[in-house]
Design goal:
The protein is mostly beta strands. It folds into three domains: 147 residues, no CATH class; 187 residues, Immunoglobulin-like (Sandwich); 192 residues, Chondroitinase Ac, Chain A, domain 3. It is 5% helix and 46% strand. Strands 10, 11, 12, 17, 22 and 23 form a six-stranded antiparallel beta sheet that branches. Strands 14-15-24-20-21 form a five-stranded mixed β-barrel.
Length: 550
């Protein structure tokens, strides 16, 4: 089966974007209906530089992780071409009020790891989320890293108090101070004291005053499904950070996880932070919370509550901790237990034309958008319904954008948790979707078989102007069921295409679409087998057809 689907993607470059003049074409109809996986989830994974991530390690965790497979029905999870495609066990289905939930850990060399929580609800057959991985050697504006070295005594302990301070840099105005008391010893993951003579300390500080702080946050979202309170109870909520830092340490080649005594971390706050719980800008004497985030578990813990103080004329919060992880300070707003249901109305997307629509959810401060809390993507046609989950129980703005980032609609919701009915979202016509309807249709016919094959994979198709950088690839849509139709492609210019299915990525370069074209892959009259190595392609087709009973 794997080779069959690989061959299908190979044929994308010779048949789907077929430019012969025999049949000009008007719709992109790719006959696809696996009927194997009904529910899928797609994670787009990009570097902060815009490049797609590959060669990353993927681990699934959480309540329903054991029910998730890759597109090939296996438990091997790979990020290819910036995409990770996941599928729900076909014997399992999410229920109303009981969605399938799990999280995805992704790690890669020279990148900060991310953890992406995923919810598959009964209404959303395809869930698409995005994650940004921060390249520590090529930091985005709004991130600052300081590396320090501390000399340790003979017993692996500090011989005197040590204070490490960061400084404003790279668009980060907030600073962090770490105070190590004399006699502090450092422990590995098993709790053993590490004695290596010297300690390396890396302090990452994020600018939380920016709207897009979500992209800098571990996991790419500000919603935590499990937060332990001081009493040991568990709650969930959306974080609205006034400060964000990650502190990591090594002694020799050993990663430090905890200490023999608490250390103190002082988080300088966003001086203009708007607290939705007090409905006012932060000030000295306010109560604030610090939360430790275990990024590999989408899990948090209230570290301690404290009073906002002034340090060197700046508002700050001090916390004492005996372990290392990400730390944030600010407010937490409880999450809705119900999903926010929407229906897209767009007359310009009638007649089965689809368009990728991105949504972004922002908190509200003084009547304007503040922190970006969540983002996601739908492939939309007129009447498409979808769910937004884990929204906060406070006022939000929700904005909807086309593939080029043009705003198509906006909602101002006082409390998403109080709305149980489906909310209509009327999308303004996208200025980049004015081309005639184009529909790609591909059939595959096995040799000696009269009828075309219809058991073909659902995959994701990206496009960009021919010759443009790979970082400019944009989602054209989901090629699934009967066809994909679009008004994003012009018939007068060439494009590069990228198809992604499972761990397979296939590129088709410098292709011009025509109008009203369909093609059948096979060895018969007027059928396509490829102009390069056609005999080899035919043998591949025969083999995979035989393997699959055709």
């Amino acid at each position: 089966m794997n080779r069959y689907f690989f061959y299908f993607l190979f044929l994308l470059s010779t048949a789907v974007i077929y430019t012969g003049c025999a049949n000009p074409f008007k719709d992109i109809d790719i006959r696809i209906d696996t009927n194997i996986f009904k529910y899928t989830a797609v994670v787009e994974v990009f570097s902060n530089t815009g490049a797609p991530i590959s060669n990353a390690t993927v681990t699934l965790r959480g309540k329903d992780a054991d029910k998730i497979y890759n597109a090939e029905g296996k438990k091997e999870f790979i990020v290819s071409g910036g995409m990770l495609i996941l599928a729900l066990d076909p014997k399992v289905a999410p229920q109303a009020g009981n969605p399938v939930t799990f999280s995805v850990d992704i790690t890669a060399n020279d990148y900060l790891s991310v953890n992406i929580p995923i919810t598959i609800s009964v209404e959303n057959l395809s869930t698409m989320v995005s994650a940004t991985m921060i390249n520590t050697k090529n930091l985005s504006q709004g991130l600052n890293i300081k590396t320090s070295t501390v000399t340790l005594g003979a017993n692996g302990a500090t011989t005197a108090p040590v204070v490490i301070n960061t400084a404003p840099s790279n668009g980060v105005t907030e600073t962090v101070s770490i105070a190590l008391p004399a006699g502090t010893q450092f422990k590995d993951a098993e709790g053993n004291i590490v004695n290596a003579g010297a300690l390396a300390v890396k302090t990452l500080v994020a600018n939380t005053s920016s709207n897009d702080v979500q992209d800098l946050f571990p996991g790419g979202g500000l919603s935590l499904s499990q937060i332990k309170t001081a009493s040991g109870a568990t709650t969930s909520g959306n974080l609205l950070p006034a400060a964000l830092t990650e502190v990591s340490m090594w002694a020799g080649n050993t990663s430090i996880k905890s200490f023999n005594q608490p250390i103190q971390i002082t988080l300088q706050l966003d001086q203009n932070y708007f607290n939705p719980l007090t409905n006012a800008t932060v000030k000295e004497g306010d109560q604030a919370r610090s939360i430790a985030i275990a990024q590999t578990l989408v899990y948090g813990r209230f570290e301690n509550a404290g009073m906002v103080v002034k340090e060197s004329g700046k508002l700050a919060l001090k916390l004492n901790t005996a372990h290392l992880t990400w730390f944030t300070a600010g407010a937490m707003v409880s999450s809705c237990t119900n999903d926010f249901k929407i229906q897209f109305n767009a007359s310009w997307l009638s007649n089965n034309i689809t368009h990728p629509v991105t949504y972004k959810v922002f908190s509200v401060a003084n009547g304007a958008k503040d922190k970006q809390l969540a983002t996601g993507k739908f492939t939309v046609t007129n009447g498409t319904q979808g769910n937004l989950n884990k929204l906060p129980s406070s006022a939000v703005f929700i904005f909807y954008y086309d593939v080029e980032g043009n705003e198509l609609a906006a909602q101002n919701i006082a409390n998403p948790c109080s709305i149980g009915s489906v909310q209509a979202v009327t999308l303004n016509t996208s200025p980049v979707a004015g081309n005639p309807k184009v529909t790609m249709q591909l059939y595959v016919r096995c040799p000696n078989n009269k009828n075309p094959v219809t058991l073909l994979p659902t995959f994701y198709l990206y496009y960009k102007d021919a010759g443009a950088p790979t970082t400019t690839f944009k989602l054209l849509g989901t090629v699934t069921k009967v066809y994909i139709s679009t008004s994003l492609l012009s018939t007068s210019k060439p494009y590069d295409f990228k198809a992604v299915w499972g761990s397979y990525v296939k590129l088709a370069s410098n292709k011009t679409v025509s109008v009203d074209n369909a093609a059948t892959v096979g060895d018969g009259t007027n059928e396509i087998i490829g102009t390069i190595a056609g005999a080899t392609n035919l043998e591949m087709l025969k083999e995979v057809c035989k393997e699959n009973g055709y």
